[in-house]
Protein backbone atom coordinates (compact mmCIF):
# COMPACT_ATOMS: atom_id res chain seq x y z
CA UNK A 1 0.00 0.00 0.00
CA UNK A 2 1.23 3.48 -0.82
CA UNK A 3 1.08 5.72 2.23
CA UNK A 4 0.00 9.34 2.14
CA UNK A 5 1.69 11.62 4.61
CA UNK A 6 2.56 15.25 5.12
CA UNK A 7 6.25 16.02 5.34
CA UNK A 8 5.60 18.50 8.14
CA UNK A 9 2.67 19.22 10.40
CA UNK A 10 -0.50 19.36 8.28
CA UNK A 11 -3.55 18.02 10.02
CA UNK A 12 -5.82 17.54 7.04
CA UNK A 13 -5.29 13.98 5.83
CA UNK A 14 -8.29 12.70 3.93
CA UNK A 15 -9.04 9.07 4.73
CA UNK A 16 -10.10 8.31 1.17
CA UNK A 17 -6.47 8.63 0.00
CA UNK A 18 -5.27 5.45 1.63
CA UNK A 19 -8.06 3.37 0.12
CA UNK A 20 -7.65 4.74 -3.39
CA UNK A 21 -3.88 4.59 -3.55
CA UNK A 22 -3.89 0.80 -3.36
CA UNK A 23 -4.62 0.93 -7.08
CA UNK A 24 -1.29 2.60 -7.83
CA UNK A 25 0.77 -0.58 -7.56
CA UNK A 26 0.07 -1.73 -11.14
CA UNK A 27 1.04 1.54 -12.78
CA UNK A 28 4.10 0.23 -14.65
CA UNK A 29 1.82 -1.85 -16.86
CA UNK A 30 0.47 1.39 -18.31
CA UNK A 31 3.84 2.25 -19.87
CA UNK A 32 4.02 -0.52 -22.48
CA UNK A 33 2.99 1.64 -25.45
CA UNK A 34 1.84 5.16 -24.77
CA UNK A 35 1.49 6.76 -28.22
CA UNK A 36 -0.40 5.45 -31.21
CA UNK A 37 1.01 5.68 -34.73
CA UNK A 38 1.39 9.37 -35.67
CA UNK A 39 -1.23 10.85 -37.97
CA UNK A 40 -0.38 13.33 -40.72
CA UNK A 41 -2.73 16.30 -40.87
CA UNK A 42 -3.77 17.09 -44.43
CA UNK A 43 -1.58 19.86 -45.83
CA UNK A 44 -2.71 20.60 -49.38
CA UNK A 45 -0.26 23.33 -50.25
CA UNK A 46 2.84 21.31 -49.32
CA UNK A 47 4.66 24.41 -48.19
CA UNK A 48 7.02 24.53 -45.25
CA UNK A 49 5.52 24.75 -41.77
CA UNK A 50 7.09 26.25 -38.71
CA UNK A 51 5.22 26.42 -35.40
CA UNK A 52 2.02 24.90 -34.02
CA UNK A 53 -0.34 25.59 -31.14
CA UNK A 54 -3.97 24.82 -30.26
CA UNK A 55 -7.02 26.91 -29.37
CA UNK A 56 -10.80 26.92 -29.88
CA UNK A 57 -11.09 29.16 -32.93
CA UNK A 58 -14.75 28.60 -33.82
CA UNK A 59 -16.44 28.49 -30.43
CA UNK A 60 -17.44 24.80 -30.43
CA UNK A 61 -15.47 23.97 -27.24
CA UNK A 62 -12.98 21.85 -29.20
CA UNK A 63 -9.36 22.88 -29.51
CA UNK A 64 -8.36 23.46 -33.12
CA UNK A 65 -4.83 23.39 -34.52
CA UNK A 66 -3.17 26.68 -35.44
CA UNK A 67 -0.03 26.63 -37.64
CA UNK A 68 2.36 29.31 -38.86
CA UNK A 69 4.69 29.07 -41.85
CA UNK A 70 5.87 30.79 -45.03
CA UNK A 71 2.78 30.20 -47.20
CA UNK A 72 0.15 30.73 -46.09
CA UNK A 73 1.51 32.64 -43.11
CA UNK A 74 -1.18 31.33 -40.75
CA UNK A 75 -3.73 28.54 -41.22
CA UNK A 76 -5.81 26.23 -39.05
CA UNK A 77 -7.22 22.71 -38.91
CA UNK A 78 -10.73 22.50 -37.49
CA UNK A 79 -11.16 19.88 -34.79
CA UNK A 80 -14.17 17.74 -35.81
CA UNK A 81 -14.11 15.67 -32.61
CA UNK A 82 -12.90 12.12 -31.98
CA UNK A 83 -9.38 13.22 -33.00
CA UNK A 84 -10.45 13.97 -36.56
CA UNK A 85 -9.33 17.22 -38.23
CA UNK A 86 -10.51 19.03 -41.35
CA UNK A 87 -8.07 20.11 -44.07
CA UNK A 88 -6.15 23.33 -43.52
CA UNK A 89 -7.99 26.62 -43.89
CA UNK A 90 -6.13 29.84 -44.58
CA UNK A 91 -6.27 32.60 -41.97
CA UNK A 92 -3.72 35.06 -43.30
CA UNK A 93 -1.43 35.29 -46.32
CA UNK A 94 0.80 38.29 -46.61
CA UNK A 95 3.98 36.64 -47.88
CA UNK A 96 5.64 37.65 -44.62
CA UNK A 97 6.69 34.20 -43.29
CA UNK A 98 4.52 33.53 -40.28
CA UNK A 99 7.16 32.93 -37.62
CA UNK A 100 4.67 32.40 -34.81
CA UNK A 101 0.90 32.58 -34.32
CA UNK A 102 -0.83 32.93 -30.95
CA UNK A 103 -4.38 33.67 -29.84
CA UNK A 104 -5.94 36.45 -27.77
CA UNK A 105 -9.36 38.09 -27.64
CA UNK A 106 -8.17 41.46 -28.86
CA UNK A 107 -11.56 43.15 -29.29
CA UNK A 108 -13.25 41.65 -26.21
CA UNK A 109 -16.06 40.10 -28.23
CA UNK A 110 -15.76 36.65 -26.66
CA UNK A 111 -13.81 34.86 -29.41
CA UNK A 112 -10.11 34.28 -29.97
CA UNK A 113 -8.36 36.42 -32.55
CA UNK A 114 -4.96 35.51 -33.98
CA UNK A 115 -1.73 37.41 -33.40
CA UNK A 116 0.89 36.71 -36.06
CA UNK A 117 4.58 37.60 -36.08
CA UNK A 118 5.70 38.05 -39.68
CA UNK A 119 9.44 37.59 -39.95
CA UNK A 120 9.97 39.10 -43.42
CA UNK A 121 7.44 41.88 -42.86
CA UNK A 122 9.19 42.90 -39.61
CA UNK A 123 5.87 43.37 -37.85
CA UNK A 124 3.30 41.80 -35.54
CA UNK A 125 -0.38 41.98 -36.51
CA UNK A 126 -3.71 40.75 -35.22
CA UNK A 127 -6.30 39.08 -37.43
CA UNK A 128 -9.92 39.51 -36.37
CA UNK A 129 -12.08 36.42 -35.80
CA UNK A 130 -15.85 36.67 -36.25
CA UNK A 131 -16.35 33.85 -33.73
CA UNK A 132 -17.06 31.11 -36.26
CA UNK A 133 -13.50 30.66 -37.45
CA UNK A 134 -13.80 33.23 -40.24
CA UNK A 135 -10.95 35.71 -40.23
CA UNK A 136 -10.89 39.15 -41.79
CA UNK A 137 -9.44 42.54 -40.88
CA UNK A 138 -5.67 42.66 -40.25
CA UNK A 139 -4.43 45.36 -37.85
CA UNK A 140 -0.76 46.12 -37.11
CA UNK A 141 0.35 46.00 -33.47
CA UNK A 142 4.11 46.54 -33.84
CA UNK A 143 5.95 47.57 -37.01
CA UNK A 144 9.47 48.39 -38.23
CA UNK A 145 11.07 45.56 -36.27
CA UNK A 146 14.07 43.47 -37.19
CA UNK A 147 13.22 40.02 -38.62
CA UNK A 148 11.37 38.07 -35.92
CA UNK A 149 12.64 34.73 -34.60
CA UNK A 150 9.91 33.94 -32.08
CA UNK A 151 6.89 35.42 -30.32
CA UNK A 152 4.86 34.24 -27.34
CA UNK A 153 2.12 35.76 -25.18
CA UNK A 154 2.68 35.87 -21.42
CA UNK A 155 1.67 38.08 -18.49
CA UNK A 156 5.05 39.58 -17.62
CA UNK A 157 3.89 42.31 -15.23
CA UNK A 158 1.23 40.37 -13.31
CA UNK A 159 -1.70 42.56 -14.33
CA UNK A 160 -3.82 39.65 -15.63
CA UNK A 161 -3.28 40.66 -19.28
CA UNK A 162 -1.12 38.79 -21.78
CA UNK A 163 1.81 40.83 -23.06
CA UNK A 164 3.83 40.18 -26.24
CA UNK A 165 7.36 38.81 -25.82
CA UNK A 166 9.43 38.47 -28.98
CA UNK A 167 12.97 37.95 -30.25
CA UNK A 168 14.55 39.40 -33.39
CA UNK A 169 17.74 39.00 -35.39
CA UNK A 170 19.13 40.55 -38.57
CA UNK A 171 22.02 38.74 -40.24
CA UNK A 172 22.58 41.81 -42.42
CA UNK A 173 22.85 44.25 -39.54
CA UNK A 174 24.36 41.75 -37.10
CA UNK A 175 21.88 42.87 -34.49
CA UNK A 176 19.37 41.03 -32.37
CA UNK A 177 17.53 41.11 -29.07
CA UNK A 178 14.61 40.19 -26.84
CA UNK A 179 11.82 42.72 -26.38
CA UNK A 180 8.31 42.95 -25.00
CA UNK A 181 5.19 45.05 -25.47
CA UNK A 182 2.85 45.72 -22.57
CA UNK A 183 -0.84 44.98 -22.96
CA UNK A 184 -2.96 47.92 -21.83
CA UNK A 185 -6.75 47.93 -21.90
CA UNK A 186 -6.59 50.19 -24.96
CA UNK A 187 -3.84 48.35 -26.85
CA UNK A 188 -0.14 47.50 -26.73
CA UNK A 189 2.83 49.68 -25.87
CA UNK A 190 5.85 50.16 -28.07
CA UNK A 191 9.06 48.12 -27.85
CA UNK A 192 10.54 47.57 -24.38
CA UNK A 193 14.01 46.11 -24.14
CA UNK A 194 14.98 42.97 -22.25
CA UNK A 195 18.28 42.35 -24.07
CA UNK A 196 19.63 44.01 -27.21
CA UNK A 197 22.81 41.93 -27.61
CA UNK A 198 21.60 38.40 -28.34
CA UNK A 199 21.34 36.88 -31.81
CA UNK A 200 18.81 34.30 -32.91
CA UNK A 201 16.63 33.18 -29.97
CA UNK A 202 14.50 30.66 -31.84
CA UNK A 203 12.50 29.45 -28.83
CA UNK A 204 11.57 31.94 -26.13
CA UNK A 205 10.60 30.56 -22.73
CA UNK A 206 9.21 31.99 -19.50
CA UNK A 207 9.25 30.42 -16.03
CA UNK A 208 9.89 31.27 -12.39
CA UNK A 209 13.61 30.45 -12.39
CA UNK A 210 14.50 31.73 -8.91
CA UNK A 211 11.39 30.81 -6.92
CA UNK A 212 10.04 34.31 -6.24
CA UNK A 213 6.69 33.70 -7.98
CA UNK A 214 7.49 36.09 -10.84
CA UNK A 215 7.90 34.98 -14.49
CA UNK A 216 11.52 35.25 -15.61
CA UNK A 217 12.66 35.11 -19.24
CA UNK A 218 14.94 32.45 -20.73
CA UNK A 219 16.88 33.21 -23.89
CA UNK A 220 19.08 30.64 -25.67
CA UNK A 221 20.54 31.98 -28.92
CA UNK A 222 21.78 30.20 -32.01
CA UNK A 223 24.16 32.60 -33.71
CA UNK A 224 26.12 34.04 -30.78
CA UNK A 225 26.03 31.07 -28.38
CA UNK A 226 24.33 32.88 -25.48
CA UNK A 227 22.28 30.99 -22.91
CA UNK A 228 20.88 33.40 -20.31
CA UNK A 229 17.97 34.13 -18.06
CA UNK A 230 16.63 37.52 -17.06
CA UNK A 231 15.17 38.04 -13.60
CA UNK A 232 11.77 39.67 -13.31
CA UNK A 233 12.19 42.58 -10.88
CA UNK A 234 8.40 43.19 -10.80
CA UNK A 235 6.43 46.02 -12.38
CA UNK A 236 7.68 45.09 -15.84
CA UNK A 237 11.37 45.57 -15.06
CA UNK A 238 14.04 42.94 -15.76
CA UNK A 239 17.63 42.42 -14.70
CA UNK A 240 20.70 42.11 -16.85
CA UNK A 241 21.56 38.64 -18.10
CA UNK A 242 22.26 35.78 -15.67
CA UNK A 243 24.48 33.31 -17.51
CA UNK A 244 23.32 29.70 -17.71
CA UNK A 245 26.08 28.55 -20.05
CA UNK A 246 29.09 30.56 -21.17
CA UNK A 247 29.45 31.83 -24.72
CA UNK A 248 32.90 30.26 -24.67
CA UNK A 249 31.24 26.86 -25.13
CA UNK A 250 30.23 28.02 -28.66
CA UNK A 251 27.03 25.94 -28.60
CA UNK A 252 24.38 26.78 -31.21
CA UNK A 253 21.20 26.65 -29.16
CA UNK A 254 18.06 25.43 -30.89
CA UNK A 255 15.67 25.34 -27.93
CA UNK A 256 15.26 25.81 -24.20
CA UNK A 257 12.25 24.44 -22.34
CA UNK A 258 11.67 24.98 -18.58
CA UNK A 259 10.41 22.10 -16.42
CA UNK A 260 11.12 20.50 -13.03
CA UNK A 261 13.02 17.46 -14.24
CA UNK A 262 14.16 16.04 -10.88
CA UNK A 263 11.06 16.72 -8.79
CA UNK A 264 12.75 19.06 -6.31
CA UNK A 265 10.28 21.90 -6.82
CA UNK A 266 12.40 24.27 -8.90
CA UNK A 267 12.58 24.95 -12.62
CA UNK A 268 15.29 23.18 -14.61
CA UNK A 269 15.83 23.72 -18.35
CA UNK A 270 15.91 21.26 -21.26
CA UNK A 271 18.34 22.43 -23.94
CA UNK A 272 18.98 21.25 -27.49
CA UNK A 273 22.18 22.41 -29.19
CA UNK A 274 24.91 21.27 -31.58
CA UNK A 275 27.32 19.97 -28.93
CA UNK A 276 27.41 16.55 -27.27
CA UNK A 277 25.12 15.77 -25.53
CA UNK A 278 22.79 17.12 -28.22
CA UNK A 279 19.88 17.32 -25.79
CA UNK A 280 20.29 17.60 -22.03
CA UNK A 281 18.71 19.17 -18.99
CA UNK A 282 20.42 21.72 -16.77
CA UNK A 283 19.84 21.40 -13.04
CA UNK A 284 18.73 24.46 -11.06
CA UNK A 285 19.71 24.75 -7.38
CA UNK A 286 16.48 26.69 -6.75
CA UNK A 287 17.98 30.18 -6.89
CA UNK A 288 18.61 30.38 -10.63
CA UNK A 289 22.11 28.94 -10.46
CA UNK A 290 22.52 25.96 -12.78
CA UNK A 291 24.88 23.48 -11.17
CA UNK A 292 24.97 20.47 -13.49
CA UNK A 293 24.14 19.28 -17.01
CA UNK A 294 22.51 15.85 -17.44
CA UNK A 295 22.36 14.05 -20.76
CA UNK A 296 19.09 12.93 -22.33
CA UNK A 297 20.55 11.70 -25.63
CA UNK A 298 24.28 11.03 -25.95
CA UNK A 299 24.48 10.22 -29.66
CA UNK A 300 26.78 12.87 -31.13
CA UNK A 301 25.28 12.66 -34.61
CA UNK A 302 21.73 13.37 -33.47
CA UNK A 303 20.34 16.86 -33.84
CA UNK A 304 17.38 18.16 -31.88
CA UNK A 305 15.49 21.30 -32.84
CA UNK A 306 12.83 21.26 -30.15
CA UNK A 307 11.83 19.32 -27.06
CA UNK A 308 8.85 19.59 -24.74
CA UNK A 309 8.19 18.10 -21.32
CA UNK A 310 5.05 16.72 -19.68
CA UNK A 311 4.03 13.79 -17.53
CA UNK A 312 3.07 11.60 -20.48
CA UNK A 313 2.68 8.39 -18.45
CA UNK A 314 1.05 10.11 -15.44
CA UNK A 315 3.48 8.71 -12.91
CA UNK A 316 4.29 12.04 -11.29
CA UNK A 317 7.44 13.13 -13.13
CA UNK A 318 8.29 15.07 -16.28
CA UNK A 319 9.07 13.10 -19.44
CA UNK A 320 10.46 14.47 -22.70
CA UNK A 321 9.12 14.39 -26.27
CA UNK A 322 11.49 15.31 -29.09
CA UNK A 323 12.70 14.49 -32.59
CA UNK A 324 16.01 12.74 -33.30
CA UNK A 325 17.09 14.24 -36.61
CA UNK A 326 19.92 11.88 -37.55
CA UNK A 327 17.63 8.83 -37.37
CA UNK A 328 14.53 10.67 -38.63
CA UNK A 329 12.57 9.57 -35.56
CA UNK A 330 10.17 11.06 -33.02
CA UNK A 331 10.99 9.87 -29.52
CA UNK A 332 9.54 9.74 -26.03
CA UNK A 333 12.09 9.72 -23.18
CA UNK A 334 10.59 8.57 -19.87
CA UNK A 335 11.78 9.94 -16.56
CA UNK A 336 12.65 7.34 -13.92
CA UNK A 337 11.51 9.77 -11.24
CA UNK A 338 14.83 11.19 -10.11
CA UNK A 339 15.93 13.08 -13.20
CA UNK A 340 17.52 10.07 -14.87
CA UNK A 341 15.92 8.76 -18.02
CA UNK A 342 15.20 5.53 -19.84
CA UNK A 343 16.34 4.88 -23.39
CA UNK A 344 14.23 6.74 -25.98
CA UNK A 345 11.01 5.04 -27.08
CA UNK A 346 10.53 5.57 -30.82
CA UNK A 347 6.98 6.74 -31.53
CA UNK A 348 7.39 7.81 -35.17
CA UNK A 349 9.78 7.18 -38.05
CA UNK A 350 10.50 8.80 -41.41
CA UNK A 351 10.24 12.29 -39.89
CA UNK A 352 13.33 14.34 -40.77
CA UNK A 353 13.31 16.48 -37.62
CA UNK A 354 10.66 18.05 -35.39
CA UNK A 355 11.26 21.77 -35.25
CA UNK A 356 8.26 22.59 -33.02
CA UNK A 357 6.61 20.37 -30.38
CA UNK A 358 3.33 21.35 -28.72
CA UNK A 359 1.83 19.35 -25.84
CA UNK A 360 -1.91 19.45 -25.14
CA UNK A 361 -4.72 17.16 -23.99
CA UNK A 362 -6.62 17.56 -27.26
CA UNK A 363 -9.32 14.96 -26.59
CA UNK A 364 -10.03 15.60 -22.89
CA UNK A 365 -9.04 12.13 -21.68
CA UNK A 366 -6.51 13.44 -19.11
CA UNK A 367 -3.37 12.24 -20.91
CA UNK A 368 -1.14 14.61 -22.87
CA UNK A 369 -1.09 14.40 -26.67
CA UNK A 370 1.43 16.01 -29.03
CA UNK A 371 1.27 18.09 -32.19
CA UNK A 372 4.55 18.71 -33.97
CA UNK A 373 5.79 20.29 -37.18
CA UNK A 374 8.57 19.12 -39.48
CA UNK A 375 9.79 22.06 -41.53
CA UNK A 376 11.99 20.00 -43.83
CA UNK A 377 9.14 17.58 -44.58
CA UNK A 378 6.44 20.31 -44.78
CA UNK A 379 4.30 18.22 -42.37
CA UNK A 380 2.10 18.67 -39.32
CA UNK A 381 1.90 15.53 -37.15
CA UNK A 382 -0.51 14.42 -34.45
CA UNK A 383 0.68 11.93 -31.82
CA UNK A 384 -2.26 10.61 -29.77
CA UNK A 385 -1.49 9.49 -26.25
CA UNK A 386 -3.60 6.41 -25.51
CA UNK A 387 -2.38 5.77 -21.99
CA UNK A 388 -5.94 4.76 -21.15
CA UNK A 389 -7.53 2.05 -23.27
CA UNK A 390 -11.01 3.18 -22.22
CA UNK A 391 -12.50 6.23 -20.52
CA UNK A 392 -10.72 6.34 -17.15
CA UNK A 393 -12.47 6.43 -13.80
CA UNK A 394 -11.98 9.94 -12.41
CA UNK A 395 -11.34 10.34 -8.69
CA UNK A 396 -11.36 13.98 -7.49
CA UNK A 397 -9.64 14.77 -4.22
CA UNK A 398 -9.44 18.19 -2.56
CA UNK A 399 -6.93 18.96 0.17
CA UNK A 400 -4.91 21.85 1.56
CA UNK A 401 -1.77 22.61 3.50
CA UNK A 402 0.14 25.58 4.85
CA UNK A 403 3.01 27.33 3.11
CA UNK A 404 6.22 25.40 3.72
CA UNK A 405 4.51 22.03 4.02
CA UNK A 406 4.14 19.32 1.38
CA UNK A 407 2.29 16.07 0.83
CA UNK A 408 3.08 12.77 -0.80
CA UNK A 409 0.38 11.02 -2.77
CA UNK A 410 1.29 7.92 -4.71
CA UNK A 411 4.28 8.95 -6.86
CA UNK A 412 3.69 12.67 -6.29
CA UNK A 413 5.49 14.86 -3.78
CA UNK A 414 3.60 18.15 -3.83
CA UNK A 415 4.93 21.33 -2.26
CA UNK A 416 2.76 24.00 -3.87
CA UNK A 417 -0.88 24.59 -4.69
CA UNK A 418 -2.45 23.57 -7.97
CA UNK A 419 -4.05 20.63 -9.75
CA UNK A 420 -2.05 17.41 -10.03
CA UNK A 421 -2.72 14.14 -11.85
CA UNK A 422 -1.49 10.61 -11.76
CA UNK A 423 -2.78 7.34 -13.15
CA UNK A 424 -3.26 3.86 -11.72
CA UNK A 425 -4.30 0.56 -13.24
CA UNK A 426 -7.49 -0.86 -11.82
CA UNK A 427 -7.72 -4.57 -11.06
CA UNK A 428 -10.92 -4.73 -13.12
CA UNK A 429 -12.50 -2.37 -15.63
CA UNK A 430 -10.95 0.87 -16.82
CA UNK A 431 -7.90 2.54 -15.35
CA UNK A 432 -8.16 5.31 -12.79
CA UNK A 433 -6.91 8.89 -12.95
CA UNK A 434 -6.58 10.74 -9.66
CA UNK A 435 -7.19 14.49 -9.86
CA UNK A 436 -5.74 16.15 -6.78
CA UNK A 437 -6.68 19.79 -6.20
CA UNK A 438 -4.38 21.34 -3.61
CA UNK A 439 -4.80 24.71 -1.89
CA UNK A 440 -1.72 26.26 -0.29
CA UNK A 441 -2.58 28.67 2.52
CA UNK A 442 -0.14 31.46 3.45
CA UNK A 443 1.69 31.80 6.74
CA UNK A 444 1.82 35.42 7.87
CA UNK A 445 4.99 36.80 9.41
CA UNK A 446 4.34 40.45 10.15
CA UNK A 447 6.22 43.19 11.96
CA UNK A 448 4.32 46.24 13.23
CA UNK A 449 5.79 49.47 14.63
CA UNK A 450 3.28 51.37 16.76
CA UNK A 451 3.08 54.15 19.34
CA UNK A 452 0.75 54.86 22.25
CA UNK A 453 0.63 57.69 24.75
CA UNK A 454 1.70 57.16 28.34
CA UNK A 455 -1.22 55.88 30.37
CA UNK A 456 -2.85 54.14 27.39
CA UNK A 457 -3.21 50.39 27.05
CA UNK A 458 -2.36 48.56 23.81
CA UNK A 459 -4.11 45.34 22.75
CA UNK A 460 -1.83 42.89 20.94
CA UNK A 461 -3.15 40.73 18.08
CA UNK A 462 -3.54 37.75 20.45
CA UNK A 463 -5.65 39.82 22.84
CA UNK A 464 -3.00 40.46 25.48
CA UNK A 465 -2.85 44.04 26.76
CA UNK A 466 0.36 45.93 27.44
CA UNK A 467 1.31 49.47 28.41
CA UNK A 468 5.12 49.47 28.30
CA UNK A 469 7.55 49.95 25.44
CA UNK A 470 9.02 46.77 23.98
CA UNK A 471 8.74 44.09 21.29
CA UNK A 472 5.86 41.63 21.68
CA UNK A 473 5.34 38.45 19.65
CA UNK A 474 1.92 36.91 19.07
CA UNK A 475 1.60 33.41 17.63
CA UNK A 476 -1.81 32.92 16.07
CA UNK A 477 -3.68 30.27 14.12
CA UNK A 478 -5.55 31.77 11.18
CA UNK A 479 -8.97 30.61 10.05
CA UNK A 480 -7.24 28.27 7.60
CA UNK A 481 -5.36 26.52 10.43
CA UNK A 482 -1.94 27.91 9.53
CA UNK A 483 0.43 29.46 12.05
CA UNK A 484 1.12 33.18 11.85
CA UNK A 485 3.62 35.29 13.79
CA UNK A 486 3.04 38.98 14.43
CA UNK A 487 5.71 41.03 16.19
CA UNK A 488 4.66 44.42 17.55
CA UNK A 489 7.42 46.93 18.31
CA UNK A 490 5.68 49.29 20.73
CA UNK A 491 6.89 52.68 21.92
CA UNK A 492 5.18 54.60 24.70
CA UNK A 493 5.34 58.36 24.17
CA UNK A 494 6.04 59.85 27.64
CA UNK A 495 5.11 63.39 26.59
CA UNK A 496 1.32 62.93 26.49
CA UNK A 497 -0.72 61.58 29.37
CA UNK A 498 -4.30 60.36 29.16
CA UNK A 499 -6.98 61.40 31.58
CA UNK A 500 -8.58 57.99 31.71
CA UNK A 501 -6.56 55.02 30.60
CA UNK A 502 -9.07 52.47 31.85
CA UNK A 503 -11.69 53.48 29.32
CA UNK A 504 -9.53 52.18 26.49
CA UNK A 505 -9.45 48.64 27.84
CA UNK A 506 -13.12 47.94 27.37
CA UNK A 507 -13.58 47.61 23.62
CA UNK A 508 -12.55 44.59 21.57
CA UNK A 509 -12.51 43.05 18.12
CA UNK A 510 -12.89 39.36 17.28
CA UNK A 511 -11.93 37.10 15.63
CA UNK A 512 -8.39 38.30 15.00
CA UNK A 513 -6.99 37.27 12.49
CA UNK A 514 -10.24 37.61 10.54
CA UNK A 515 -11.31 36.36 7.13
CA UNK A 516 -14.76 37.57 6.03
CA UNK A 517 -16.55 39.30 8.95
CA UNK A 518 -15.64 40.84 12.30
CA UNK A 519 -17.43 41.69 15.53
CA UNK A 520 -16.71 44.94 17.39
CA UNK A 521 -17.78 45.42 21.02
CA UNK A 522 -17.76 48.77 22.84
CA UNK A 523 -18.65 49.60 26.45
CA UNK A 524 -22.20 50.57 27.30
CA UNK A 525 -22.64 54.33 27.12
CA UNK A 526 -19.92 54.89 24.53
CA UNK A 527 -22.34 54.86 21.62
CA UNK A 528 -22.46 58.65 21.23
CA UNK A 529 -21.75 58.59 17.52
CA UNK A 530 -18.84 56.18 17.87
CA UNK A 531 -17.05 55.32 14.62
CA UNK A 532 -14.52 52.56 13.95
CA UNK A 533 -11.99 53.22 11.21
CA UNK A 534 -9.86 50.55 9.52
CA UNK A 535 -6.59 52.10 8.30
CA UNK A 536 -3.98 50.42 6.08
CA UNK A 537 -0.19 50.70 6.38
CA UNK A 538 -0.10 53.83 4.18
CA UNK A 539 -2.57 55.69 6.41
CA UNK A 540 -5.55 55.31 4.07
CA UNK A 541 -8.97 54.65 5.62
CA UNK A 542 -10.28 51.55 3.86
CA UNK A 543 -13.51 51.11 5.85
CA UNK A 544 -15.62 53.20 8.22
CA UNK A 545 -18.20 51.59 10.52
CA UNK A 546 -20.77 53.50 12.61
CA UNK A 547 -21.29 51.75 15.96
CA UNK A 548 -24.75 52.34 17.41
CA UNK A 549 -24.95 49.29 19.70
CA UNK A 550 -22.59 47.63 22.13
CA UNK A 551 -21.88 44.81 19.64
CA UNK A 552 -21.69 45.16 15.88
CA UNK A 553 -20.87 42.46 13.28
CA UNK A 554 -19.93 43.57 9.77
CA UNK A 555 -18.27 42.04 6.69
CA UNK A 556 -14.72 43.07 5.80
CA UNK A 557 -14.51 43.60 2.06
CA UNK A 558 -10.91 44.74 1.68
CA UNK A 559 -7.76 42.77 0.76
CA UNK A 560 -5.70 40.61 3.11
CA UNK A 561 -3.09 42.48 5.14
CA UNK A 562 -2.39 44.24 8.44
CA UNK A 563 -4.65 47.11 9.45
CA UNK A 564 -5.23 49.39 12.44
CA UNK A 565 -8.74 49.61 13.88
CA UNK A 566 -9.29 52.96 15.64
CA UNK A 567 -12.31 54.32 17.54
CA UNK A 568 -13.48 57.89 17.44
CA UNK A 569 -16.10 58.80 20.05
CA UNK A 570 -18.23 61.85 20.55
CA UNK A 571 -17.12 61.81 24.20
CA UNK A 572 -13.56 62.62 23.07
CA UNK A 573 -12.19 59.76 25.13
CA UNK A 574 -8.59 58.63 24.42
CA UNK A 575 -9.32 55.29 22.73
CA UNK A 576 -6.30 53.23 21.65
CA UNK A 577 -5.79 51.27 18.41
CA UNK A 578 -6.13 47.53 17.82
CA UNK A 579 -4.01 45.79 15.17
CA UNK A 580 -6.13 43.57 12.94
CA UNK A 581 -4.83 40.91 10.54
CA UNK A 582 -7.08 40.26 7.53
CA UNK A 583 -6.53 36.89 5.81
CA UNK A 584 -7.97 35.45 2.59
What does this protein look like?
With 584 residues, the protein is mainly beta. It has 1 helix and 50 strands. The strands form 15 sheets. Strands 2-33-32-31 form a 4-stranded antiparallel sheet, with no helix packed on it. Strand 11 (123-129) and strand 12 form a beta hairpin. It is elongated, with a radius of gyration of 29 Å. The two termini are 36 Å apart.
Entry summary:
The protein has 584 residues and is mainly β. 41% of the residues are buried.
Q: Rounded to an integer, what's the Rg over CA atoms?
A: 29 Å
Count of DSSP-assigned helices = 1
How would you sum up the global shape?
elongated
Strand content: over 45%
Sheet with most strands: strand arrangement: 2-33-32-31
Question: How many strands in all?
Answer: 50
- Helix proportion range: under 10%
- State the end-to-end distance: 36 Å
The major sheet is characterized as: 4 strands, antiparallel
Low-confidence runs (pLDDT<50, min 5 residues)?
Answer: 1-32, 496-505
What structural class results from the helix and strand content?
A: mainly beta
Mean pLDDT over all positions: 85
Features:
584 residues, mainly beta, four-stranded antiparallel beta sheet, 1 helix, 50 strands, 1% helix, disordered N terminus
How does the SSE layout of this entry go?
Layout (H helix, E strand, L loop, with lengths): L4 E2 L9 H5 L18 E2 L10 E5 L8 E5 L5 E4 L1 E3 L2 E2 L3 E4 L5 E7 L8 E6 L4 E7 L5 E8 L5 E7 L8 E8 L4 E7 L1 E2 L2 E2 L3 E4 L9 E3 L8 E5 L6 E8 L2 E9 L7 E7 L8 E6 L5 E6 L5 E8 L9 E4 L8 E6 L4 E5 L11 E5 L6 E5 L8 E6 L4 E5 L9 E10 L4 E3 L2 E3 L3 E7 L7 E10 L3 E10 L3 E2 L5 E2 L3 E8 L5 E15 L10 E3 L6 E5 L8 E6 L5 E7 L3 E5 L5 E8 L9 E5 L2
Parallel strand pairs: 34-38, 39-43
Antiparallel strand pairs: 1-35, 2-33, 3-4, 4-5, 5-8, 6-7, 9-10, 10-11, 11-12, 13-14, 14-15, 15-18, 16-17, 19-20, 20-21, 21-22, 23-24, 24-25, 25-26, 27-28, 28-29, 29-30, 31-32, 32-33, 35-36, 37-38, 40-41, 42-43, 44-45, 45-48, 46-47, 46-49, 49-50
Amino acid sequence: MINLYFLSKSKRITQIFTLLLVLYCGHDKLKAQIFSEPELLSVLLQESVYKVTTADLNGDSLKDVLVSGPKPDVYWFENLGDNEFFVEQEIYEGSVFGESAQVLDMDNDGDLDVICAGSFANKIVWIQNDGDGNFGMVTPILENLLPIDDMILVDLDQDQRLDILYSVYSSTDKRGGIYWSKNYTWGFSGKRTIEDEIWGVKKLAVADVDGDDLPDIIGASFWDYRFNWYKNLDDGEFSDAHIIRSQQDTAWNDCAFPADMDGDGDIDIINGNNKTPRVAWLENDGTGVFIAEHSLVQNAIQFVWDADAADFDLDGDMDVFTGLGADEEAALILNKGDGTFEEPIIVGTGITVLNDVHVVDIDGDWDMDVFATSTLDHDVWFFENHLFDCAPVEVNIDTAFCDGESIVMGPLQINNGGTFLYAAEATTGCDTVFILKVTEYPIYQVEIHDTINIGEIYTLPDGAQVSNSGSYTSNLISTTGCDSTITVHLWVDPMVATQNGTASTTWSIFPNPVDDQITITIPYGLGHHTVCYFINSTGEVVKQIDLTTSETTVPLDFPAGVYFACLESGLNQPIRKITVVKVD
